[in-house]
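User: Before I run my own analysis I want an independent prediction to cross-check against. Here's the chain; please return only the structure tokens and, at the end, one sentence I can use as a sanity check.
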Amino acid sequence: MRLHPLLAVTALALPNALPGQSAPSAVPVVAAGPSSLLAGVPGASRFVTANGARLHYLDFGGRGEPVVLLAGLGNTAWIWSEFGPRLAREGFRVVALTRRAHGESAAPASGYTLDALAADVIAFMDSLGFRQAHLVGHSLAGAELTRIAARHPSRVRRLVYVDAAYDRALQQRYDAAVPPPELGPEMTPADRRSVDAYLAYQRRARLDLARRWSAAVERDFRASLVADSLGRVRWRHPFARYGEMIADASRGAPEYAMVRAPALALYATVSQAILPAGASAEQRAAVARFERENNARWIAESVAQFRSGVRTGRVERIDGVHHLFLDRPEETLRAIVRFLRDSVPPSRP
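Assistant: Structure tokens:
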């Protein structure tokens, strides 16, 4: 499965396919310790059955208008476990949902289209008694935000796209012409001998996350990992489910013309394609070509689509990498709070 770096953690955070890894079998597994993840997190870890699936969520509490945080592809509610409590302290009722086939949520046999994922969010809101909510989505969750706003407009107060307002169909075309460069080290069997070894590998491979490696990042990984009876660490859910979600999100351009809610699109200015120390000339050339002929063009076209398509949209750029709420939490928090508190609907920039 070939994924673009801006599809959140999946491109580099999922383990490379080793023998028997492409489709996890019915090997007996034990959890990688999710019960201990709540330590140090203000809030509660809970489950709810929404749209027929048992889904995990974090409740960060707070009082005020409801805010639902949606993680990027491959990430879970735990990735918000530092940012979510801070947003709650700003005067909002904040929860974070783990989508199906992610982390501790169930992985039903079907339901990996944008329509189904949107229905999951609406059913989740129903279970908590949220008639309306602000939706904040990172990375591929941007496609879910747009679909929810298009299909369920009365349920949305405002939308915040955290480096998430992108045309995934356009992305696939650019990637086919100029593929993302391979920069991270290959995963070895030794990197799968324990969760700690796996995390150490990710700190070497994910240079964008290593900039701001934190407890939230580690919680997110630990919620997504399991060990088989021989102690070999692997991803909890089949990668094929992620491929189904990407395929559906890439079927066409975002339906921005259907978005009626005020929307803020935050864009990261720093590329995820970070060169490792001692990068070869070939790697440097590959990154330069990728940035010039793929990434920069795709982002520019996506920004233009959002500007022209969302009637009450606004665009802001933050000097950070893709996980802005981890890399630049202060700036990201200020931008989101300012937007959600703004009593006047934003005009077209």
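Sanity check: The two ends are 37 Å apart (CA to CA).
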